[in-house]
């Protein structure tokens, strides 16, 4: 199929079926793409019927391939699923799951045409789809064009920027969220953005301000702060921070210190952090690996 031998791809599927082999969802999607490229509607319908027969027609790969094939063959009646906001969100998620930006953009166009670009469920799916594909600016456009923004969508945009190293933009989204009068919740990951750029004082300011929003810091927040101290080279301050935690220490928080010690080359403190991590969770293989790396 990738080399444009579409008829050969179809013949191979037929041969597989005759020999008793059951093609998987990815294989069927590939053949459906060939049918679309050939504008071979009847062959595409045969593949659809076969997918139903072997019970893979509801797989994300196959559903996406079917919609694409019918659309390319100008059989919009077959392609249309009488879509509503739930249908559109589902197919956008399907495109996201198979990392198909092309399909996601096609569904986005359909969303705009049908007027669902302000629906929270659809917008969340769009932002997530673009974020997974690395199209950060497109994710932001889908985000800002909606009038309805739940905390979950703000969180998603903050995390998207933070994960792609756009810490300042993540922080700006956080500030905009506060200006809009929305209250951050437990999973608002502004601390993650701070850890990417090493803004230690501002990171602690945000950590200390969590109580203003009625949020009690959890283990994930403490891991972020230990990582932040570690990035700043303050590994012993990080150790003291862990020991003063008002909640139960976890392997993850000690593992964060261990990672910092591996970077700084502090074998003694790293060994101690590894021992503490292992005592919290003896089954955590990551601590053993990091310990071997720091000692090796």
- Tell me the major beta sheet: none
Report the portion of residues in β strands: under 5%
Shape designation: globular
Number of strands: 0
* Structural class assignment: mainly alpha
Q: What is the typical, i.e. mean, pLDDT?
A: 83
CATH homologous superfamily of the domain at 217-296, by name?
Answer: Tetratricopeptide repeat domain
Summed up, the helix count is 18
From the 3D structure, determine the CATH topology of the domain at 217-296: Serine Threonine Protein Phosphatase 5, Tetratricopeptide repeat
For the record, the CATH architecture of the domain at 217-296 stands as: Alpha Horseshoe
Rg: 25 Å
The CATH top-level class label of the domain at 217-296: Mainly Alpha
Unreliable segments of 5+ consecutive residues: none
Helix content: over 70%
State the distance separating the first and last CA atoms: 48 Å
Q: How would you spell out the order of helices and strands?
A: HHHHHHHHHHHHHHHHHH
